[in-house]
Specification:
four-stranded mixed sheet; ten-stranded mixed sheet; alpha/beta; Adenylosuccinate Synthetase, Chain A, domain 1; binds inosinic acid; globular; 20 strands; Adenylosuccinate Synthetase, subunit A, domain 2; 12 helices; Adenylosuccinate Synthetase, Chain A, domain 3
Length: 425
């Protein structure tokens, strides 16, 4: 199979985990390139549910190499916990997982800073997952971060840690209620994590390039989504990494020429967790209905997701900035039983009709959605349908509108939670 990037086209939680799991069958390597354990990828196999936060969803298949790239930020305890939990359920992790030496480590200070900064922001908070993601990427960009490889150079690690903790405690000085950890305490904890993770640590840039050179196919697993990308999302209400397709290059150390396809994953409607603008959000009963039917509660934090109609302004932006070659529509079955389905075709801002996603926050916040209404497929179901021909006609019409509006083919449709509830075109 080809080398494919799987990327979220909305605000994350599009169901990428399941799609990666399904496509892994035909791939040799699955690689994560950004984010950290803020992600929550749910995969259901024969009724058994797995929620993966850091380890690529491909690990649930035998004999597939799984890579956590240099662009990912790793909380070592979260990784060890995930490894142990998977092992306890019979998943072969030891043989198949490699973690980049260059991946930056989330430290306890990052978590304290994340939580304290959010508290300080009050009503302007981002609504982060509180996992220390932003402060860890901040240290990486300001060249004071600590990487996986540092765990194996104890003296160097101690020195870097002292400087890092001193900086963090200085900033945390503004928050008298925050517990401050000493460098020695963290040192001992992290050295023990290093021992446990040593078998997995690798020059993943070399490993992945050798795999590609020898003809193996790679799935690049994006986390979060396009509108949460630090450059192309609803800044500052974003995560701190490049969730878009470009992040796969820098986050793993591969060149763009090795990519054959970029598949964008979109829910048949839209959700967002955390703060920030969301033009097609449904505030009343319709939103509640989508949330309950779609079980729209965060896989990482359990927070209720905000729900709304499918938004073509968002998706057009995602097609453009990711160079999408195809689309995957998930959770189509959640729209079963709806009499009418709306799609957002543009934004009204003052007397203008906007077709492109605005970058200016005051404009975005002042936009109202312009909808077109389509017929639902009441009386028919898409749940568990496994061939395109068996979809109700109105559901096919919905897929056609999406494909034609965005000008790219719909490659896959997901019609339920289980691995097998899927239609390939
Ligand atoms: P952070 O990544 O924890 O810093 O959170 C920044 C923003 O990204 C918040 O709005 C989070 O809710 C959101 N976010 C982070 N990871 C995910 C995810 O995997 N799915 C959906 N939203 C996410």
């Amino acid at each position: 199979m080809a080398n494919i990037i799987i990327v979220g086209t909305q605000w994350g939680d599009e169901g990428k985990g399941k799609i990666v799991d399904c496509l892994t069958e035909k791939s040799n390597v699955v690689a994560r390139y950004q984010g950290g354990h803020n992600a929550g990828h749910t995969v259901v196999i024969g009724g058994d549910k797995f929620i993966l936060h850091l380890i690529p969803s491909g690990v649930l298949h035998k004999d597939k190499l799984c890579i956590i790239g240099n662009g990912v930020v790793v909380d070592p305890l979260a990784l060890i916990t995930e490894i142990e939990e998977l092992k306890a359920r019979g998943v072969a992790v030891m043989e198949n997982l490699k973690v980049s030496k260059n991946a930056h480590l989330i430290m306890p200070t990052h978590v304290s800073l994340d939580l304290s900064k959010e508290l300080k922001k009050g009503s302007k908070k981002i609504g982060t997952t509180g996992r220390g993601i932003g402060p860890c990427y901040t240290d990486k960009a300001s060249r004071s971060g600590i990487r996986m490889l540092d765990l194996f150079w104890p003296e160097q690690f101690k020195e870097k840690l002292r400087a890092n903790v001193a900086d963090a405690n200085y900033m945390l000085g503004q928050f008298p209620d925050t517990k401050k950890l000493g460098a020695d305490e963290i040192y001992n904890m992290y050295m023990s994590y290093g021992e446990k993770l040593a078998p997995y640590v690798d020059d993943t840039d070399i490993t992945i390039n050798e795999a590609i050179k020898s003809g193996k196919s790679v799935l690049f697993e994006g986390a979060q989504g396009t509108l949460l990308d630090v450059d192309h999302g609803t800044y500052p209400y974003v995560t701190s990494s490049n969730a878009t397709a470009g992040g796969a290059m820098t986050g793993l150390g591969v060149g763009p020429k090795c990519i054959d396809e970029v598949l964008g994953v979109a829910k048949a409607y839209t959700t967002r967790v955390g703060e920030g603008p969301f033009p097609s959000e449904l505030m009343g009963q319709e939103g509640e209905l989508l949330r309950e039917k779609g079980a729209e509660y965060g896989a990482t934090t359990g927070r209720p997701r905000r729900c709304g109609w499918l938004d073509f302004v968002v998706l057009r932006h995602a097609v453009r900035v990711n160079g999408l070659t195809g689309l995957v529509i998930t959770k189509l079955d959640i729209l079963d039983g709806m009499d009418k389905i709306k799609v957002c075709v543009g934004y009204r801002y003052k007397d203008q009709l906007l077709k492109d996603f605005p970058k200016e926050m005051p404009i975005l916040e002042g936009c109202t959605p312009v909808y077109e209404e389509l017929d639902g497929w009441t009386g028919h179901t898409t749940a568990g349908v496994r061939s395109y021909g068996k979809l109700p006609q109105k559901a096919k019409d919905y897929m056609k509108v999406i494909g034609e509006t965005l000008g790219i083919p719909i490659a896959i449709v997901s019609t339920g939670q289980d691995r097998d509830d899927i239609i390939y075109s």
